[in-house]
Amino acid sequence: MKKLIAKSIALAVSGMLLGGCAGQREQSIQELQTENAVSQSASLEQGTSENAVSEKEDSESESMKKEDIENTVLQIEDIENEVTESIVPTIVITEENKKWYTEDGEQLYYASADRVEVSGDGFEALNAVLSEQWGGLRDNYDMVEFLCEKYESLRERYGSFVNFGINEGAVVCRLDDCVASFCGVYDEYGGGSHGYYGYNGATFDVQSGKKLQLEDLLNDAEGFYDKAISYILEKLEENYENMLYSDYEEAVETKTFGGETPACWYLDGTGIVIRYNLYSIATYASGTQKVTLPYDEFAEYIKEDYRKPCSSLVASVGVNEDFSGLIGETGRVMLISSVPSNGHSEVTVVSGDARETVGKVTFVTESYVIKHEDGRSFLVFYGQSDHWATYVYEITGGNVRKCDELDGAEWNGACTGTNRIGLSMNLDVLGTYTGEMVYQLTDDGKLIQTEEIFAVDTSQKLTLRKDLPVTIDGEETTIPAGSEIQITGTDNAGKACFQMDADIGKTGLIQYVRDAQGKILIDGVSETEYFEKVPYSR
After folding, report:
1. CATH class of the 13-42+87-218+303-455 domain in this structure
2. CA 340, 341, 347 angle in degrees (round to 5)?
């Protein structure tokens, strides 16, 4: 299951040492997502076209035969049917996990890898290249054999065995009828004082599946590179100041678009994103650096297909960045976040001359613009104020309208499309901290569950203190004390699905209620009386 959103901005180095690879994955994901948190001041506030349809009278129309008219009508109906079909793929990302253990039961190695696929029929060429790029777990991990040989010496060296492992993932950054652009996320811990993490962009032609090079997007590569270098140096100085190496300018000029390890690039809703990996232009402690080259500012160098307004799309956008171009709006469209002295951001949604204040938000961790084929556009973002929530605002035609606010929900990247998005929901049902759900984004901007049950991915097992009343195969029964169960799903409204640890594949249902304090009761008895330990505190 995808759990990409973190609830803190950064990890301390000591946390990385203790957490090993898990800590590295958290940091790399956090860094990618929390860059949408407040980064510029409110001063940034300063400051579709429709295709003309001409009608032509045909002087010979009256002489058309009846069968010709009928054929014309059928052709129009065929075109209309084609238009109603989705021209933008929906991407599903499934995280696959595997653990290796020693003979004495200690975890030796951990691997997770994303499998990226197109949901449903169509876009076969794209689906093939995505499956090749991110095909889930690999057959072999060389580190496992090494650790088996060195286990005893490593354990003696570190005092306790460190959590070695690797994670390979992907995040959708722009998806429309032209391109599918991803930021690959990689991290690994293989010993030493800390692990390593990095990013790798990949952009594909939606129809052909071809993996695009940056030059494929440009009509004047030389001019683009010259202007881009100057722009990048200016933004690095502005945003990162003393964090950079003393010779970073030379590295930017020589390695950004060339050399053995050029900078990572991908597309989002606002421009071409250039990202420098660890040690490229700054120390490890400084993390990675990112600069976005706006579509409008580099329009003369970018081919029209990659910067023109899209009929429908979904793309990540940053705070304080205008993304009106891709959705065909004439005025600015932005999620503005100012930074007052009290540390809380004042978040405002802007579309043309219209604006609506969301309120004080600690930070915004993820934001996406979604445009439907009917021309309506929505801003979907996740942030924290006095609670965590996912917000939806319509931003069509220079207007701003709040459509929905889903408390406890956060973007997780498991499903990304113009009509469907994957969210995680805070649950706290028998130890299930979060559950995964695909939501339908309706034409009115509402987020509607597509299933009744939230999928839960937890390895936590619950051991019974006393006989537990359950339903199995439609019949009420009890599970004896001492048994172990694992929660696999819940509707977050009175039902919890479980699996018997001793009988894999045997599933059942637990009915529960919450009391006035929010505590879970089963058959009138507190959950803490039924289980030896529930993995959260109340």
Report:
1. alpha beta
2. 20
